[in-house]
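User: Structure tokens for this complex, please. No commentary.
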Amino acid sequence: MLADSCFMSVPERMCAATATGTEATRTVERFLRDTERRALRMAELATGNRDEALDLVQDAMFGFVRHYSAREPGEWAPLFWRVLDSRIHDWRRRQRVRGRWLGWFERDADADEDPIAAAPDPYEPGPLARLADREASRALESALRALPLRQRQAFLLRLWEGLDVAATATAMRCSEGSVKTHLFRALGNLRTYLEAHR
Amino acid sequence: MNAPRNQPWVERALELLDQSAASLDAATLSRLNRTRQAALVQRRRNAGLGWLIGAGLAGATLALLLAFGITHHHALSPAVAPLALEQGAEVDVVVAEDNLDLYENLDFYAWLDAEQQDGDG
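Assistant:
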């Protein structure tokens, strides 16, 4: 192969490079297609809004393609989640700053909501395992959204996405010990929250 | 203790998450598809730009090397010429002062040689 490429003319080399580029683009496309739905759900759990989540996934895809798609495919998963995690953190930071400025106006809007109606219903029938799919999904979504961001990310990346501890640490930009701690706390909090829905 | 993933409630939670990801509506899937395609177009553009930058850099490097080679060659040329002269020891002998006198009186020495030969004969 190396010998073949040594004897290639310039146009042949350009064609070979184009073919390799096309194949690489297809591999990137497969990876993104496999990942995008879970990425959207993860962003949606963080933002609580589908449009915002779609914007974050779009930013993450562009960032990943620009900075990391030339790397080995085996390295892609933690790097993609790292970009998305970073975008989610940026979004939260922006929301916090915006919240500081608009706090007064939003306080008025919140006054219309009934806090008792918004609170989780402790008499909601059945635990997660016995709930109908839709109700169970709703309970799980509430539980996940109630988790602190780092705990939720640890749960989703480590257990749902199936990354190992090291890859999860890369994606979350923290130590492996922190991943274990966040995951342990996430499991405890989720269990407590879901138990309350029995 | 069971690994977290093997606990029934965690398994159930992951199952529900899979379902929620699988049951996204068509409009959302379409937007995801457009986003993905746009990212890939950007990748192709970047790859093309990479080729251009690579070719430009290679050209610039070649031009620099050529310029350096030419400049260096000119700088070396005067130094090479005296070396070549020094190597020819015969040239020194020929251009020595005594030998120039010999050339100037060459006709006289030829006549003297002829006289001597006649005298011997």
